[in-house]
DNA sequence: CGCGAGCTTGACGTTGTTCAACTAGAGTGG
DNA sequence: CCACTCTAGTTGAACAACGTCAAGCTCGCG
């Protein structure tokens, strides 16, 4: 499964699990962070950060699953799915851009550390290895977003949805059988399609023997087939 | 004109003109950069960086106009338009991501400084204010890309093209009358439409008295009208 | 048992792409 | 100076992909 996922430039974002940003800090610095952070639990559906509001804290997702989306004119676009180990709010680090540039909400019950953004700003200036890790993080997110961007603009419904399914299986749930925490409507949002089209496309995949669905329970039967659909468009 | 442009989250990328990344370096560090850079001139259409090839240098665009695009399966997606003052190649800073993540080519005659990427990596570790400026740059590019992403996925042809026109007038050429260096085909690529649709949509704008066109010469007559079209979709 | 949210299906309309033909202008060689 | 050709731009018609709308279904829960 992972071999498949590695071959596509998939559209869902997933953090690099090997990266421990705060482990790069000195003991002293870690102490400062620990003294200036709080841990918050969010229930399913709750807003974690609201686009346009002042970014006073950076969020470090510890457990759960979060959607980060851009809102405008009553429409929304999911920018990335955030799994534990990833940070939210870094685009507010520039002082001239100090409000959340997107909204984040919890797909499922989620816990997050909130760390004062000014502490983060100071750590960037005080610890260059930490700064470098943040640069790496931003670069990786950027590249993953490019892939998602490409997928949503240059593929049609079958390709988009095949991509999302492979990504959910390979990157988020890391197994070919999973109970989807998302509704059809959320799947539609994620792939930039209408709910009805998602349903019809899923049905098509099922008829072609690529996946099997039982309500919210998904099973990827033919990942290579899905991959082929991704690549064709 | 700029008041209009500021009100929309436009899809074309433009660098923050007030930022001089290398001015943050010490004299010593600037000397190292100057000793390890070359200036290259590119002719119209030439490839400046090719997706997939090793990133040995970061590009600092000094003059001209560059398109940065993502290629896959014989399709391409323009990620951003790069004007002088902006950097290209920063997404290759992470060591596990050390190839160009996109292709860059010159729209018009362009000059660029090429600076060894390892020097940049070292400067990030040695000079935290430089590192912080790079973080700010990546954040700004990220936000602009989100806007472009939203525009291309959630607007239809009229909205997309109106956005591009306002952006070209307001951000790139900075005047409401300009000779477009781009062909209709390039305009189509930029807005994610077919060439024919671009032509038809431009014609529509002209009939509605929003713009006037004489071959490659464009004039924005009613920026508020274009803005309204952007916002409606 | 009945209600309601989420899911599913069918019919229909719109948007925008594709294909093919045609035009205009710029450059080239006889 | 005139064909010739090549490219970019333009137009029309046919078609396909999707979204929208409206109606019906299902399943969990009070």
Question: Can you put this structure into words, describing what you see?
Answer:
The structure is a homodimer of 233-residue chains. By secondary structure, chain A is of the alpha+beta class. The first copy, chain A, has two domains: 21-146, Jelly Rolls, CATH 2.60.120; 155-232, Arc Repressor Mutant, subunit A (Orthogonal Bundle). Helices cover 42% and strands 24% of the residues of chain A. Chain A has a four-stranded antiparallel beta sheet. A four-stranded antiparallel beta sheet of chain A has the order 2-7-4-5, with no helix packed on it. Chain A binds chain B through residues 9, 70, 72-73, 75, 77, 79, 90-94, 97, 101-102, 121, 124-129, 131-132, 134-136, 138-143, 145-147, 149-150, 152-154, 192, 231, 233, and chain B through 9, 70, 72-73, 75, 77, 79, 90-94, 97, 101-102, 121, 124-129, 131-132, 134-136, 138-143, 145-147, 149-150, 152-154, 192, 231, 233. The structure holds a DNA duplex (30 and 30 nucleotides).
């Amino acid at each position: 499964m992972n071999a498949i996922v590695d071959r596509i430039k998939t559209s869902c974002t997933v953090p690099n699990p090997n990266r421990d940003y705060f482990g790069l800090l000195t003991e002293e610095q870690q102490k400062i962070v620990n003294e200036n952070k709080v841990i918050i639990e969010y229930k399913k559906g709750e807003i974690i950060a609201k686009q346009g509001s002042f970014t006073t804290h950076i969020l470090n997702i510890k457990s759960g699953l979060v959607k980060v989306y851009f809102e405008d004119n009553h429409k929304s676009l999911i920018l990335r799915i955030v799994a534990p180990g990833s940070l939210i709010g870094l685009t507010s680090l520039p002082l001239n851009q100090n409000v959340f540039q997107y909204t984040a909400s919890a797909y499922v019950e989620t816990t997050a550390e909130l760390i004062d953004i000014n502490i983060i700003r100071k750590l960037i200036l005080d610890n260059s290895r930490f700064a470098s890790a943040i640069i790496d993080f931003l670069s990786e997110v950027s590249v993953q977003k490019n892939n998602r961007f490409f997928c949503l603009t240059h593929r049609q419904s079958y390709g988009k949805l095949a991509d999302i399914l492979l990504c959910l299986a390979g990157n988020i749930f890391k197994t070919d059988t999973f109970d989807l925490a998302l509704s059809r409507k959320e799947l539609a949002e994620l792939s930039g399609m209408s709910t009805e089209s998602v349903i019809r496309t899923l049905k098509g995949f099922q008829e072609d023997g690529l996946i099997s669905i039982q309500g919210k329970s998904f099973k990827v039967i033919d990942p290579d087939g899905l991959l082929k659909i991704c690549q064709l468009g």
